[in-house]
Write a structure and sequence with these properties.
The chain is of the alpha/beta class. It has helices at 8-13, 15-18, 24-32, 45-54, 88-99, 125-138, 165-168, 179-182, 186-206; strands at residues 35-39, 59-63, 104-107, 117-120, 142-148, 151-157, 215-220, 225-230. Strands 3-2-1-4-5-6-7-8 form an eight-stranded mixed β-sheet, sandwiched between helices. The longest helix is centred in the last third of the chain and has 21 residues, at 186-206. It binds zinc ion. Residues 163-164, 166-167, 233-234, 237, 239-241 line the site of zinc ion.
């Protein structure tokens, strides 16, 4: 729903963040008009969706093909025991939409990438590279986060502005141990999902300069130390360099659905 500065309900609901000079009525209007796609409604996506909706993002689309399992409940805080076996995307959209009635929440398909910003809240290299390639060739900003045990990573990739995901990680490096093998604590995933929401909100209200674009942020969630690694664009990058060979979704190995 667009932000209406004369609506007492919205003024009260967003009052605390309207006070922030980085947001204010202009930023709130941008959030209200924004369309954000969250890919993955798991440990990262659950907090990200809630904070984006709570901040007043007008249209949220959630993509996830999994169903809720009992082992998800230690970190995927939108789900309850009665949701077991049900599609995560559907439950997440219903539950967040019911709490934050100013947001439109839909369960989306992957071809729906006409977003102002996409959040990669997936948990595997295949999905991560697919999203990084699709967003770059379509010119869509991408906020990517990952968490393995107590190690978290955050990056924002802005087409035409900063380096892309493949400048840092040219090719999938084997396979990542999943949560089932490596183990995961809910609060650790929650920190990274919240940071993703924060980064998307900062981009929507403040533009590229408000983001970590050009850097990889690495958090040790056990010692709570943070490293911000500056990484320049890679001139040999297959996705965004002058000799890039990934120019459209077909090059990236993605079938475009009409
Ligand atoms: Zn690149």
């Amino acid at each position: 729903m667009p932000f209406n500065p004369r609506d007492p309900d919205q003024l009260s609901r967003y009052g605390r963040q309207l006070q922030l000079k980085q947001i204010g009525p202009a930023g709130q209007a941008r959030l209200g008009g924004a369309r954000v796609v969250v890919v993955g409604a798991g440990g990262l996506g659950c907090p990200a969706l809630q904070y984006l909706a709570a901040a007043g993002v007008g249209a949220l689309h959630v993509i996830d093909g999994d169903v809720v399992e009992l082992s998800n409940l230690n970190r995927q805080v939108l789900y309850r025991p009665e949701d077991l076996g049900k599609p995560k995307a559907e439950i997440a959209a219903q539950r967040v939409g019911a709490t934050f009635t100013h947001a439109t929440l839909t369960r989306a398909q992957l071809h729906l990438l006409e977003a102002d910003v996409v959040l990669d809240a997936t948990d595997n290299f295949a999905a991560r590279f697919l999203l990084a390639d699709a967003c770059r060739v379509k010119g869509i900003p991408l906020v990517q986060a990952a968490v393995t045990q107590f190690s978290g990573q955050l990056g924002t990739y802005l087409p035409g502005v900063g380096p892309c995901y493949r400048c840092f990680f040219p090719e999938p490096a084997g396979t990542l141990p999943g949560c089932a093998e490596a183990g995961i604590l809910g609060a650790a995933a929650g920190v990274m999902g919240s940071l993703q929401a924060l980064e998307a909100i900062k981009f929507l209200v403040g533009g590229p300069a408000a983001t970590v674009s050009g850097h990889l942020v690495v958090l040790d969630l056990w010692t709570l130390s943070l490293e911000r690694i500056a990484l320049p664009p890679d001139p040999t990058c297959p996705l965004c360099g002058p000799t890039a060979w990934i120019r459209d979704l077909r090059d990236a190995g993605i079938e475009e659905t009409p």
